[in-house]
TrEMBL record:
InterPro entries in the record: DMSP_lyase (IPR031723), RmlC-like_jellyroll (IPR014710), RmlC_Cupin_sf (IPR011051)
GO molecular function: dimethylpropiothetin dethiomethylase activity
Pfam families tied to this protein: DMSP_lyase
Bilayer-crossing regions: none
Protein name: Cupin 2 conserved barrel domain-containing protein
Length: 177
């Protein structure tokens, strides 16, 4: 296994460790598939966007009990091809957030069953209400954003696993921290 494959293997194991014994049927499926993935990693040309300037600060603010996952995510983030605005709405999202699909149909580690990626949202940024056809899970490493998912409104914290059902409207707002 090469160095990048080793880093993906470490990241996959760290995700499984962080998720632990959480109860959610579809999360169990994700964890099973994640543990069985082939470690054939597609190389990419690393690319960081404007919002990536906040990555180190975000990783550095990860609580000690999640530092192992933050470190494996940080190593992969340095070798990933980040994208700034997925939704193609000029001026609305540009410079506010960035994402990278690490595992999935477009990821460096291929899977047709699900996507796993990293997401960074700059301080004082509102990500307006939206929905996706796919079910989503967010695992928060740092920050305390205001979150809305369906009828639930709450402040998320590091270590929280946030679930969005398919087509569930959700939004996030970060504060300056």
């Amino acid at each position: 296994m090469n160095s990048l494959s080793n880093q993906f293997d470490r990241f996959s194991k760290d995700i499984l460790r962080a998720l632990g014994d959480r109860k959610c049927p579809n999360l169990v499926t994700l964890m099973t598939v994640l543990s069985e993935l082939s470690q054939i990693v597609e190389p990419t040309v690393p690319n960081k966007t404007v919002s990536c300037s906040w990555l180190d600060k975000a990783f550095d603010k990860t609580p000690t009990d999640l530092s192992y996952l933050a470190e494996s995510a940080r190593k992969l983030s340095d070798q990933a091809c980040w994208q700034e605005s997925q939704r193609n709405i000029p001026g609305v999202f540009e410079g506010g957030y960035a994402f990278v699909a690490l595992i999935g149909p477009e990821g460096q580690l291929r899977s047709n069953e699900f996507k796993v990626g990293l997401f960074i949202q700059q301080p004082d940024t509102y990500y307006p209400p939206h929905a996706h056809d796919a079910e989503e899970f967010y695992f928060l490493l740092s920050g305390k954003p205001k979150w809305r998912a369906g009828k639930r409104t709450f402040t998320a914290s590091p270590g929280d696993l946030i679930h969005h059902a398919p087509s569930e409207v959700h939004s996030m707002e970060t504060i300056n921290e």
